[in-house]
TrEMBL record:
The lineage of its organism: Archaea, Methanobacteriati, Methanobacteriota, Stenosarchaea group, Halobacteria. InterPro entries: Cas12f1-like_TNB (IPR010095), RNA-guided_DNA_endo/Transpos (IPR051399), Transposase (IPR001959). This is Transposase. It comes from Haloferax larsenii. Residues 93-121 are annotated as: Disordered. Residues 279-345 form the Cas12f1-like TNB domain. Keywords: DNA recombination, DNA-binding, Transposition. Residues 108-121 have a biased composition (Basic and acidic residues).
Length: 401
């Protein structure tokens, strides 16, 4: 299975004294280039009445002397940032924000505040063996042709632990950690909401009435709020356990509970739109929040993950899900069915990445925490579903009834 992982490293520079002035001159050069591009925009605006996009602006400034103070990819990025700032300004104006200002010059009392410099593949070399990063200077700032800035870094490497997430309806998320912990995020908060709003919207005279529009907006705010809260909580738990990679099972259409035939996945018939939406939104929020902590998120296939026993690894026809419990006839394991799925999803990652984990006996898995995951209950104003605030209360659970 080919899984590509993009990982964010946060590192600090150890030889600051040696590289300080070099880095400072790059930040200074970026501010100067920004100002030149900003001034060019003003000039083109007064001549043509339009502000150029980043493409023409880059082409135009490419031959400017200051462009070669930085590596060309770094210079390009400065101009892209300016174009993005202009776009942000237009958008605000379009939305009626008259007080929004166009991007400013980077000058302060004759001084230039330093700008952020971005290095892409051409200007950046990571020597992971020696913990060094090589940063390119522009042609103008080089003392000789092979001149570069050599930073010694100390990377906060993400942990080696892994987590697997199974998304569903009964439990919005079941999380299984390589540390042996298991957690559940019941889906009832979302379900109660859906029912409440569907009922209220049905009561409205017209689906386009103000009341109906307000209810819809409120519903979507609350969905978002809930997904934010769950993903934030999961990432915090991952940080605490030293997780470096999270696997999320990808939806592959409708999945039915073997026993009851009840649809238990987000690909539910009548409401497929919402469920697909919730899955995508969940995955996006999780990825974004995890990235900030240097944790990678990968989506893996969830095929057969609900049918396979995570303890003995076998898929038997005799194995079944009874009242939310996965029962293995082979090794006699009894586990929460969603936790079993999450553990199988996590294992896909281990297989693919060959992450070595401290060995754990199957006895550990079946007798302990898989069977009794921690349930994170989302509590908010029970009597007033329109109250959007909520917090998680951890609850050591018995098996889901
Ligand atoms: Zn088994």
């Amino acid at each position: 299975m080919a899984i590509q992982v993009t990982r964010t490293y946060v590192a600090s520079i150890r030889n600051q004294q040696q590289v300080k002035s070099d880095l400072d001159s790059l930040g200074f050069a970026a501010s100067k280039l920004w100002n030149i591009a900003r001034w060019t925009c003003d000039r083109i605006w007064s001549e043509t009445g339009t502000i150029p996009e980043d493409g023409p602006l880059k082409a135009y400034l490419k031959t400017h002397e200051r462009y070669a103070d930085l590596n060309s990819q770094s210079s390009q990025r400065v101009i892209e940032e300016l174009a993005e700032a202009f776009k942000g300004w237009y958008a605000k104006r379009r939305n009626g924000d008259d007080r929004a200002n166009p991007p400013k010059y980077r000058k302060h009392n004759g001084d230039h505040p330093r700008s952020t410099v971005t290095f892409k593949e051409d200007g950046f070399k990571h020597d992971s063996k020696n913990n060094r990063i090589r940063l390119s200077k522009g042609r103008n700032l080089k003392e000789h042709w092979s001149d570069f800035i050599l930073c010694e870094i100390e990377a906060e490497s993400p942990g080696n632990e892994t987590a697997g997430i199974d998304l569903g309806i009964k439990n919005l998320a079941a999380v299984s950690y390589s540390t042996g912990d298991h957690e559940l995020y019941p889906g009832n908060a979302l379900k109660t909401d859906e029912r409440y709003f569907a009922k209220e919207i049905a009561k409205c005279n017209s689906s386009r009435s103000n009341k109906a529009l307000w209810l819809r907006r409120k519903r979507s705010e609350r969905r978002s709020h809930y997904l934010h809260a769950v993903t934030r909580h999961i990432v915090e738990e991952c940080v605490e356990r030293g997780v470096g990679t999270i696997a999320v099972g990808n939806l592959e259409g409708i999945r039915e509970d073997d026993e009851t035939g009840e649809v238990r996945n987000w690909g539910d018939r009548g409401n497929e739109g919402l469920h697909r939406w919730a899955f995508d939104r969940f995955t996006n929020l999780l990825t974004y929040k995890a990235k900030a902590e240097g944790i990678a998120v990968v989506v893996v296939s969830e095929r057969d993950t609900s049918k396979t026993c995570s303890c003995c690894g076998q898929k038997r026809d005799a194995n079944r899900v009874e009242r939310g419990l996965y029962v293995c006839r082979g090794c006699n394991a009894v586990m929460n069915a969603d936790s079993n799925g999450a553990e199988n999803i996590r294992c896909r990652l281990d297989q693919a990445e060959k992450v070595t984990l401290s060995p754990r006996s199957s006895e550990d898995r079946s007798s302990g925490r898989v069977a009794r995951p921690v349930v994170n209950l989302f509590r908010r104003g029970e009597h007033d579903p329109s109250c959007g605030q909520g917090t998680f209360a951890e609850q050591a659970s018995i098996c889901e009834p």
